[in-house]
UniProtKB/TrEMBL annotation:
UniProt gene name: hypD
Protein name (database record): Hydrogenase maturation factor
Family: Belongs to the HypD family.
Superkingdom of this protein's organism: Bacteria
Keywords: Iron, Metal-binding
Organism field: Microbulbifer epialgicus
InterPro entries the UniProt entry points to: Hyd_form_HypD, HypD_1, HypD_2_sf
Length: 375
């Protein structure tokens, strides 16, 4: 396939992997921020091509994984109401809330629909004027742009029966929070190319100088990721630190002005709580005053509650790069895709899901927390 196959050619992959091995003289720990990159790394065994001194850890770039438990409980409460059509991306349906999940509520008769674009939810609202249609707006800057478009369209069409339950996150403050943590072991970052296609990468420039750390904007194919790693390791070995753009075919320094304008038109920046991690200042998006009537939380008068986590899931440690899925005593035992303890095991961008789905069976069997073990 044009523009895909050329980034999967084995001879080039092996060459870059060899180049990385040749220049790596010290022990380095890199974090790929995006969950999609995590899945690409594990699926394509990229981590196994790297020298032993080089370790990849997995960041908080899975919006499903970091959506607060309270927000999941709110979604369940709204979806269970009569006269409601609740729309969501499929990943959210099996994310565990306090006592249930959306899929279980759907099984009891709730009208919960899996959609692939927020614009579908707008269309459903048009087609069902006597129903309240709610879209679960979860995502980072890339998805938030589509969510903003849906909100603007609903406003233009004067759809009073349409609203959104918003759980949106910003990547740059998360990277800064990771760098600021005293226990952080991350020495370089692979930034998510699709997010940077919206934001650009100028926002990362202050971080490289403040924390003296390289950040490389990277794509999602094997060659993209390995080239990003090569860029990052080269800087580390040379003692330099700046922003590099590996994903030049999709990302410009200033990003997408039209998308940025739309986001500012619909949303305002706010503090945001990240599930498993805690509150990160100025790391979320909420409706601004002009679009406040589209806020489902306000519309359905849901009071804010602090829902404590169960404590069994170590997703926060995993998403901060401090542990791997194998370090969880419940991985593959109490926590499996069909009965997850946390979102990283069910999300298509979750690190635990990637390890469970793509890791070699012999690796599982060698590990103390084998998925072949009995509970």
């Amino acid at each position: 396939m044009k523009y895909v196959d050329e980034y999967r050619q084995s001879e080039y992959i092996q060459k870059i992997a060899t180049d990385i091995s040749k220049i790596t003289t010290k022990t380095w720990r890199l974090m790929e921020v995006c969950g999609g990159q995590t899945h690409a790394i594990v699926r394509n065994r990229i981590d196994q091509l790297l020298p032993d001194k080089l370790e990849l850890v997995h960041g908080p770039g899975c919006p499903v994984c970091v959506t607060p438990l309270e927000m999941v409980d709110r979604a369940i409460a709204i979806a269970a109401m009569p006269g409601v059509i609740f729309c969501s991306f499929g990943d959210m349906l099996r994310v565990p809330g306090t006592d249930s999940n959306l899929l279980e509520i759907k099984a009891t008769g709730a009208d919960i629909r899996i959609i692939y674009s927020p614009l579908q939810a707008v269309q459903i609202a048009e087609q069902n004027p006597t129903k309240e249609v709610i879209f679960f707006a979860v995502g980072f800057e890339t998805t938030a742009t589509a969510n903003a478009m849906a909100a603007a369209l609903a406003k233009k069409k004067e759809l009073n029966n349409f609203s959104m339950l918003v759980s949106q996150f910003l990547v740059t403050p998360a990277i800064e929070a990771i760098c600021s943590a005293p226990e952080s072991l991350v020495q370089g970052f692979l930034a998510a190319g699709h997010v940077c296609s919206v934001t650009g990468y100028e926002c990362y420039l202050p971080l490289t100088q403040k924390f003296r750390i390289p950040i490389v904007v990277t794509g999602f194919e094997p060659l993209d990721i390995l080239e990003g790693i090569l860029h990052c390791v080269t800087q580390l070995e040379q003692g330099t630190y700046h922003v590099a753009n590996q994903y030049v075919r999709a990302v410009k320094k200033a990003g997408n002005w039209h998308a940025q304008t739309l986001l500012k038109r619909v949303f305002s920046v706010s503090n945001q709580y990240w599930r498993g991690i805690g509150q990160i200042p100025q790391s979320g998006l909420v409706f601004n005053d002009e679009y406040a009537d589209l806020d489902a939380g306000t519309k359905f008068a849901l009071t804010a509650v602090s829902t404590p986590e169960q404590g069994l899931c170590i997703s926060g440690d995993i998403m901060l790069g401090q542990k791997k899925p194998y370090d969880c005593p419940h991985f593959g035992k109490k926590c499996r895709p069909e009965q997850p303890l946390g979102a990283p095991m069910v999300s298509s961008e979750g690190a635990c899901s990637a390890y469970y789905r793509y890791s070699q069976q012999e690796k599982f069997s060698e590990h103390p927390m084998s998925v072949t073990d009995k509970d």
